[in-house]
Amino acid sequence: MTEAPLDLDRKDTARLRKGDLAGLDGLMGRHSDRLLRYLRRLLGDQSVAEDLFQQTWVRAAERIRRYDASRPFAPWLLTVGRNLALDHLRRYRSESLDEGSEPAAPDEGPGAIEDPLARLAARERRERLGAALRELTPHDREVLCLRFEDDLSLKEMAALVSAPLPTVKARLYRALARLRARLVAGGWPEEGAR
After folding, report:
1. Rounded Cα–Cα distance for residues 33 and 72 (Å)
2. Are 140 and 175 in contact (CB under 8 A)?
């Protein structure tokens, strides 16, 4: 019987606390994709996200004794990454926060669309959505990413961003409204028009 990810996280954090880097390897194996995707969306820049991705793992390893093992590891790790990302955004506010580009998702692999025209249309929709997301503020991108990519509940999001639940709900609602407005302005068909 395989162990649940939460149990594996607890074992690996205990190993890391003892100085065993194999614990870090296990944690990275389970959480790296999610962390990098989160940072990329929050920052809007692949290279900066990769730099902060590395810094997040270093910081997490350094501060592993502060982690409360009775709670899930992923939200704690995302919080470490979020804090580094927000520090970076504050430091470099004079630079454009929305210039970064994110590579489009590959069209190959499981579940790929076989019809070339359908694949082209799906790619165009992804690119338009990505462009609209990059036009949003980092806070808007963050709540959208946490909810729809990382599939966090509103309660989990509130804990991660250290904000009351009603505030997170309002941020998500406003971010969705701004995203929708950007998509419609860019030629995306409105709800009833499809």
Report:
1. 17
2. yes
- Successive 10-residue mean pLDDT values, the chain, 194 residues: 76 90 90 90 86 92 89 90 87 49 42 64 77 84 84 85 89 90 76 51
| Contact (Cβ atoms closer than 8 angstroms) between residue 183 and residue 135 | no
Which are the contacts of 193, defined by CB distance < 8 A and separation ≥ 6? none
Q: Please say whether the structural domain 8-93 has been given the CATH code 1.10.1740.10.
A: yes
What's the CA gap between 165 and 19, in Å, rounded? 37
The pLDDT value recorded for residue 77 is 92
pTM of the predicted protein model: 0.62
- Please report, for the chain, the start and end positions of each structural domain, with discontinuous segments joined by +: 8-93, 116-194
Torsions phi, psi of 39, nearest 5? -65, -40
What does CATH list as the number for 116-194? Answer: 1.10.10.10
Give the position of tokens 């669309």. 113
Tokens 């982690």, residue located: 67
